[in-house]
Write a structure and sequence with these properties.
By secondary structure, the protein is mostly helical. Helices cover 71% and strands 0% of the residues. The protein has one domain. Pfam families: UbiA.
Length: 326
């Protein structure tokens, strides 16, 4: 992640020459933040073994679903940038008073793209994403109704996250981030296997905690901008101490979910132990943010936690699939 902002007061025309337009579109779609797309690795690990049963239609469906996921999420974050630019929150959060944020990551604020270009990008990527997800459903070995409903709902809600209905402006931002992770795990699993799995649901929630837990640290840093535009994140609604308690409770809940799943038999007994490295790193994230007071470094640690969690979830599914761990 770059750390060099454009100088304060740089004219929009000069900012627009700072980088190639395609790079600006890639930034608008947040293609460098690939963490949402790691869900497909969790699903692949859950359906891969035994290899003799893993067929080409399933593999093709997973690839097409992933491509659709990339385009839908690009549309979602582009619309989020349009709204953040219109209401002024991005201008404040990425302005000269916040030198830790790289203005080029927000092409509308930097002036490297126009609002019309951003909207066009969002609607084109949304359409491509919809077509790819429809193709994935057509190619899927199974089409359980619940999976189709989840995919359709996620598509509609994603486009309304910060635009249109502006769901994230009505107090549902944190819940949506977890729900996003859940659907991106359980829906393609349903298309591949034709059944629901409680263990995959647990994994979906844990996957959703990744975006949630770097999202809440971002919200902590952006609290003044969000309050100014009436975006009701938890950080904006409660005191600094209350926000710290909230994030501490989320961190504990992540561990407890795995512990309860192991204790009740939804997950293997060893699952909570396997996830302990992620729990330890999550604890370090909290200490960095709220004991040492370095919120942005804690946010970066959140990406490491998420990627480690995905690796551990993949390992868990491969162990279950191979029968190596009872």
């Amino acid at each position: 992640m770059a750390h060099h902002d454009l100088p304060a007061g740089l004219p929009r025309a000069a900012a627009g020459r700072a980088e190639h337009r395609l790079r600006s579109f890639a930034r608008l779609g947040k293609l460098d933040v690939y963490d949402y797309y790691l869900s497909i690795l969790v699903v692949l690990a859950a359906v891969l073994l035994p290899v003799a049963r893993f067929d080409r239609p399933t593999a093709t469906m997973l690839v097409v679903f992933l491509l659709g996921q990339v385009f839908v999420i690009m549309a979602m974050v582009a619309l989020d940038d349009v709204t953040g630019f219109r209401d002024g929150s991005d201008t404040q959060n990425y302005g000269p008073d916040n030198p830790l944020r790289n203005k080029l990551r927000k092409p509308l604020v930097a002036g490297t793209l126009t609002e019309r270009e951003a909207l066009g990008f969002a609607w084109v990527t949304a359409l491509i994403g919809a077509l790819l997800w429809a193709a994935a459903v057509t190619l899927a070995p199974h089409r359980p109704t619940w999976a189709l409903v989840l995919i359709g709902a996620l598509f509609v809600v994603s486009l309304q996250y910060s635009y249109g209905l502006k769901i994230s402006y009505h107090g549902f931002q944190e819940a949506f981030l977890v729900a996003l992770g859940v659907v991106l795990v359980v829906a393609p699993y349903g298309l591949a296997e034709g059944r629901f799995s409680g263990f995959l649901l647990v994994q979906g929630v844990l996957f959703g905690f990744g975006p949630l837990m770097f999202g809440v640290y971002s919200n902590t840093n952006d609290v003044e901008g969000d309050r100014a535009v009436g975006r009701p994140t938890v950080a904006a609604l409660v005191s600094e101490r209350g926000n710290a308690v909230f994030i501490g409770c989320l961190s504990a809940a992540e561990f407890l979910l795995g512990a309860v799943a192991s204790a009740t038999g939804i997950a293997p007994w060893w699952f909570v132990l396997l996830m302990l490295p992620a729990t330890a790193l999550r604890t370090k994230q909290f200490v960095t943010g709220f004991v040492r007071g370095d919120i942005m470094r804690a946010r970066r640690t959140g990406f490491r936690v998420h990627r480690l969690s995905v690796a551990l979830l993949v390992a868990a599914n491969l162990l279950v699939g191979s029968g190596a761990a009872g």
